[in-house]
Structure formats: structure tokens, C-alpha cells
Amino acid sequence: xxxxKSDLRSTLPAGAATAPTPxxxxxxxxxxxxxxxxxxxADGVSTWYARGQNFVVGYTELDxxxxxxxxxxxxxxxxxxxDDELGATVGDVSVSGKTMIVVPPGDSMVTVTGQGRVVRxxxxxxxxxxxxxxxxxxxxxxxxxxxxxxxxxxxxxxYRIRTYDLNVEPLKNPPFRLYRCTTFMVNFxxxxxxxxxxxxMSPHKHDDFEQCSIVLAGEYIHHIRWPWTTNKANWRExxxxxxxxxxxxxxxxxxxxxxxxxxxxxxHLIDVFCPPRADFSAMEGWVxxxxxxxxxxxx
Length: 299
Known about the structure:
This is 5-deoxy-glucuronate isomerase. This protein has a single domain (22-281), classed as Jelly Rolls (Sandwich).
């Protein structure tokens, strides 16, 4: 991994870097919603879907009111209010502004009002939602190098509606704002102005999980490189994929990757992991709601 020494990611445990390189790889996924008709459309509400191996992203643009209902939802799911002009009600809980809402399993109704963007994160156990993904056909066969999904331990005090402020101060360096639940970890990074300094990229890899990068504003180039193995038939070309908001990119393991903001205006990308990342969770103070959601016990 290549991080600047001032970036605390340079102190992440290095054990994973010695993992053996697999022989077969899956490709990346780039779903640019502006190129697609909405999967669901009503007055003032348009929704698109994209998926990874374990998760589905629902992206909604809203001007008015929309309700998201779930019946017999098998596990926790996440609703992100990405704009301060939005408010939401779930049961007897009401929130406003940029907020992460964790909705417990079972039956639920989330009603969102205002103008802005809503991101829902569900595991592929919600098969009705997974089937709506624009790239669902890509996952007809299981993607390589990703273990079977297993949720993290139940939250302290049991399942209930939990909400987290996405306007709180992030970490200093890296400027992350990390929350987790039993199914997801969300890194709600702040928007940035202008292009990324090309002399300060951060190429790195993950050995056994996908990274989902959701571009909410601006333009990015996702740089992705796969390992060379002894079997040339399994080699893949490098990618330098330009995406424009709103978009979802799923980066497969164990590819080397980094994302470069290129718009002269506002660029905003958030990262999602399903299940939560163990390495980030192991860093003291990184996960803001760690007291609510215990990490699995080490074997």
C-alpha cells in the first residue's frame, strides 16, 4: 500500500499484504446512473440500483416525499440522507440534515421529505431489491475472492433504530467519518473542491472484500490494476475509468486501486463496505459508533 507517512492509513496492519495472490480475478463494476432510465420513477422521485457481491445500493433523487417500506427484512439496512435539506421519519424517530439511519430487521417504513439525495444500502439477502440492480446480470455467477457474507455481532442493547450525524467533525488524516452496523461500514467523506493533487495518490488493495465507491458529485477517474500471475490468460488490462456523478463503482479484490477527483468544481465520493472492514475497525477511535456495534471476537 502506498500512503503518505502523514496519513494514518500507513499504520494499518500489514499482515494482509502477505496474503497469497489468487489465480483468478473478477472485473470491476461501473454503473453511471445518468446513462440509465430510473428503475423506479414517480412525481419528484427517481431511483436507480446497482449491486456488488454482498450488497445493493439504491440511489434516489427526491423533490417532495417518498416512503421506503420493507416487510420481513432479513437484516439491518442503512439509509443515508446525503443533503441537509432532507428530513426523515422512521417509527417514532425523526431526523433532519445529513444523517445515517440504521433500520433494524423486520417490517419498517422510512419516510423522507425535502429536496436532495438518499442512498439506501441493503445486503443481497434482500433479493427483491438485488433483482432491480442495473448490473444484476454480472452477479449471476459469484465473483472471485470474496468470502460468503456473514453479519457482525448484534448491537449493544439489541436491534433498534439508530441515527448518526454525518456533519460531525471527521478524523484529521485521513479525513474519514466512519460508522458501522452489523451489515455495513460507511465512510462519509466530506466534499472537496477541485482536482486531486496527482502527486498525492494512494494506491492500495484489499485481499478479500469489494470496495463500493459512490460518487455523489463531480467527476473521478478510478485507476485499477490487477496482479499478473503465472497464467497469462487470467491477466486483465489496467483500467482508468472516468465516471460522472451519480455513479457506483465496485472495486474487486485484490486489485490495486486509487480514485482521482478531476472536476474543477465540487467532488464528493463516499465508500461503503459490506460487511464492515476489520482493519479500520481495529484502529482505536476510527469508528465513531464502535460502542454501539462490537467487532467479532478474534479466533
